[in-house]
Amino acid sequence: MQLIILGLNHKTAPIEIRERLAFQESEMEKALSQVRSLPSLKENMILSTCNRVEIYAISREPEKAIRELQNFLSRYHELPLKEFEKSLYLLIGEEAVRHIFQVASSLDSMVVGEPQILGQIKSAYSMATESRTSGIILHRLLHRAFHVAKRVRTETRIGDSAVSVSSVSVELAERIFGSLEQRVVLLIGAGEMCELAARHLVAGGVEKILVTNRTYDRAVTLAQEIKGEPIRFEEMALGLKRADIVISATDSSQHLIRHDPIVKVMKERKQKPIFFIDIADPRDVEPGVGDIENVYLYNIDDLQKVANENMKDREKEARKAEAIVQEEVTKFVHWHQSLEITPTIIALKKKFEEIRKREFEKMISFHPHLSEKERQSLEALTSAIVNKILHDPLTRLKQKDEEAMSDVYLDALRTLFQLPDLTAEERMKED
Q1: Which residues pair with 55 in a beta bridge?
Q2: Strands 208-212 and 229-230, how do they pair?
Q3: H-assigned helices in 178-277
Q4: Sheet containing 295-299: which strands, arranged edge to edge?
Q5: What share of the chain is helix, strand, coil (3-state, %, to 5)?
Q6: How far is the C-alpha of 187 from the C-alpha of 231, rounded, in Å?
Q7: Looking at the annotation, which residues are catalytic?
Q8: CB-based contacts of 398: which residues, under 8 Å, 6+ apart?
Q9: pLDDT tens digits, residue range 142-196?
Q10: Opening angle at CA 228, ends 226 and 229, nearest 5
Q11: What structural domains and CATH numbers belong to the chain?
Q12: What are phi and psi of 420, to 5 degrees?
């Protein structure tokens, strides 16, 4: 039973392809059902996010399964295979296990360490469970993936450092003020950058957000969305007197906030500290503003520099996380192999014991004069012979350093001794 992952992500496919191959949540049950109907598959799960589309499948016929999955993607999305085939990647066995552990731990994300992917995987697994397309192997695989992700979060600092301009803004504000509770934020501009930074600050606990924009209606709209307070552009000075944090991101060709007016504002504020985050290009805040006492000024380059340094920190932690992933991959591979190794050993012992008993009873029928003690001695002798014959091959099969050959040994034993195929119940007993 092989684990197969067929998919594409932000590294292998442009967004135009990812969008066309994405699965809508409302249609996921239908998609899972169609994959389940493919003859070569035993289990399946579909993970579909803005950055990746992946199908996890279990099959005894991997080559056939791969062809069927490719054709399914083409047929389901009504997109010729040739248009996305080069964007697909294929992972089998141990490589597939490592991949899902890396994805769950956010080591394969566009932003390493981001936490959203784990929730998305849990949702995908829940859908597969509800649709009854996942079985013993995917159940174990996904629960181990969740465990690995938890270990990475608790044993490394991979998610500690802010790596986006918006999240860095919050991090720096917390350094300056200690806590963002009871702080007032002034947004100058109502575009996407201001909105994103504002949402991060709201999540950080700020008390109130003021919004101003040259077009007042846009200020009102954004203020409603983030439960803030709009103020007119010409009343910006009033907002500056109230604000602890000022985020500016307009398309102005000239500085909107200059040195001398801020000196006046600071006197009116009685030198209460103020933090300017200038994420406009060209800059909204005159550089000299940062020279004023109790005024802290960071522009987009300053923020990006901090974000880049933090990303380097995450990359260092990612190397620690990879060691955890490898350790867990090894454990899972051992378990997966035991699904067939242990029942095969039991079946082989059972077959040899049945042969021994049959031949022993035949021999006894030809020698009815043997005493009970002699019968017991002969039975012990025949049992010992069988055990000695089986000892070396079974020991070899169990050896962990022979993992690469275990499938070959299993196939050989089952073929040579005509052992029956394993049932789902037999595998479940070994879980």
Answers
A1: 6, 46
A2: parallel
A3: 192-203, 216-225, 236-242, 259-268
A4: 229-230, 208-212, 184-188, 245-248, 274-278, 295-299
A5: 60, 15, 25
A6: 10
A7: 50
A8: 341, 345
A9: 999 999 999 999 999 887 766 677 678 777 888 888 888 889 999 999 888 788 8
A10: 150
A11: 2-155 (3.30.460.30), 165-307 (3.40.50.720), 333-429 (no CATH)
A12: -70, 155
Which tokens belong to 400? 């962990």
Look up tokens 């135009």; give the residue. 16
Instruction: Please give the chain's pLDDT, 431 residues, in tens.
Output: 789 999 999 999 998 999 999 998 889 999 999 999 999 999 999 999 988 999 999 998 999 999 999 999 999 999 999 999 999 999 999 999 999 999 999 889 877 777 889 999 999 999 999 999 998 889 999 999 999 999 999 999 887 766 677 678 777 888 888 888 889 999 999 888 788 887 878 877 888 999 999 999 999 999 998 889 999 999 999 999 999 999 998 988 899 999 999 999 999 999 999 999 998 888 899 999 999 999 999 988 888 788 788 788 888 888 899 999 999 998 898 777 766 677 777 888 888 888 999 998 998 888 888 899 988 999 999 999 989 988 888 777 766 444 545 556 666 777 788 877 655 444 444 33
**Is residue 157 packed enough to be buried (19+ CB in 10 Å), middle (13-18) or exposed (0-12)?**
middle
CA dihedral sign of residues 126, 127, 131, 136: negative
Given the structure tokens 């990746």, which residue do they identify? Answer: 52
Q: What is the Cα Rg of the chain in Å?
A: 32
What does the alpha-carbon distance between residue 234 and residue 147 come to, in Å, rounded to a whole number? 55
Instruction: Give the tokens for residue 172.
Output: 């720096």
**Dihedral sign for Cα atoms in the order 230, 286, 274, 194:** positive
Q: Which two tokens stand for residue 349?
A: 């012992």
For residue 420, CA distances in Å to 254, 316, 348, 386, 415 come to 81, 50, 10, 20, 9
Among 272, 270, 264, which Cα is nearest to 294's? Answer: 272
What single-letter amino acid sits at 4?
Answer: I
CB 261 within 8 A of CB 245: no
Q: Which two tokens stand for residue 10?
A: 């932000």
Q: Are the C-beta atoms of residues 201 and 172 closer than 8 Å to each other?
A: no
List, in order, residues 6 or more apart from 143 with CB less than 8 Å away: none
Within 8 A by CB and 6+ apart from 287, the residues are 297
Read off φ and ψ for residue 254, nearest 5 degrees. -130, 160
| The amino acid at 48 | S
